[in-house]
Amino acid sequence: MADMIMYNFTNLSDLISTGLKQNPNGTALIANNIQLTYLEYNNAITQAIATLMKNGVKKGDTVAIVLPKSIESLITVMAIIKLGAVYVPIDIALPDERVLYIINNCQCKVVIADCRWLENIKSLIAADAQLILIEMSYEELINQEGSLIPFHDVAIHLDDLLCILYTSGSTGQPKGVKITHRNLLNFINWALLTFNVSKFDVFAWHAKLNFDISTFDIFSSLAVGASLVILDDDEIMNPYILAEKIYKHQISAWYSVPSILQLMTKTNVLKHFDCQSLRYVLFAGEVFHPKSLKQLTIMLPTARFFNLYGPTETNVCTFFEVNVDQLSETQPLPIGMCLPNVVANVCDENGHPVAEGCKGELIISGPCVTPGYWGAKDPLIAQQHANNTHYTGDLVHQENGCLYYHGRIDGMVKINGNRVELGEIEHVVNQFSGVIDAAAIMTNKEGLQQLVICYKSAIGEIDLIDLKRHCARFLPKYMIPHNAMKITELPLNPNGKIDRRRLTTLLANDQIPVSATTAALEV
Which ranges carry the AMP-dependent synthetase/ligase domain (predicted)? Predict the structure, then answer.
């Protein structure tokens, strides 16, 4: 293995330029039966830069990317960054209304798509909208010849905006988290040093482009001239295909949500394929059940395992390397220690530090913290972010500098690693005909997560199928409720807000005040 190299990239454009030159004849991208060398990757990015410049894209512009995980999406991201512009990834699986909202909200002047999605986007956009739609095809970019617009590297500063990642918002609409070059590089520079990866490594790109987990795979592999295997969106939930690709491509670095790894252990696919090429297995986004993690470490005895933690507003801000010999099947895993330059404080509801061992809200400060939400109007949160501080809403306690997670203190949950504001679901459900008020809660029985809607209605029971169809118009698939239950009263806390914790407890103990004619509606 190559000697450890110190990395300290000053911006993502610098990282791209350095990475593309390191291994020109090596394999950069692998997508099904297609492989691109770094030289081909570089040429395609150069052509994409010319295309964007011809359409008026310049430093600071927001550019929406409505593409599946693909070679095209990566080329587009790199071209946008080199121009000093801001990329806004949009999941192609989102409902039309949500896609249109993000496009309008981010105030982009250009939308990048491929031929499969271009017509659909055209049908969504108003005829008088001043938007430029560009189709991106890597075959055309690679084979394109002719004059290029002269391009000189744009001066990019650490605090320049890199991207906007839209997440679930409690107000009923997704909110855009602004990410700067400084924010992401605090993590990437640390990761490159910690994992000592090189051009001989092979990364797997599992998470979607709009999920901050994807940044590790995309930029760490590029920084060292390593190979990146692009896993199709229709493959990422198939444990057999995932294990097969680990074996086929000798993948050495893996980063995903725990639910995917748990699926691979439950189906025993790792026993049918030799996956000992895995050097690093990283996971984040949700709690990894210790019993499943223990099984995984047995199946992959030569790998190192890391629990990474951080909301989108901070990217990864803490980490914990699993000591396999001391791993308990019953004790939850810590979220660990802070990354360099990051400070963690555990405070009570008044913002005062709590004693070691006591629970409180985790507050993160440092260069990893977002400068704020796109178009944010809350002055308090805006001031906190301006001070490089983010109140995570996570309940933790600290022992000897190590942080332990205890859940949320608000209405946010994680579903297969996706951040979900229960308030956003409630906002949509409350617009459904017949619903007076509603509360969304998460239940977990034997490891099976389910979203349940408890609602008050002036009429009879609502039809679950109709409710699902209504929600599907506005919400991603993973936010659509599984069950619905009509109840007589929604429990409230002293502040007059819906008490979801009490509601969850009542439901678990079959003590919900259900109306006489109502029963749970199963999926």
Answer: 21-374
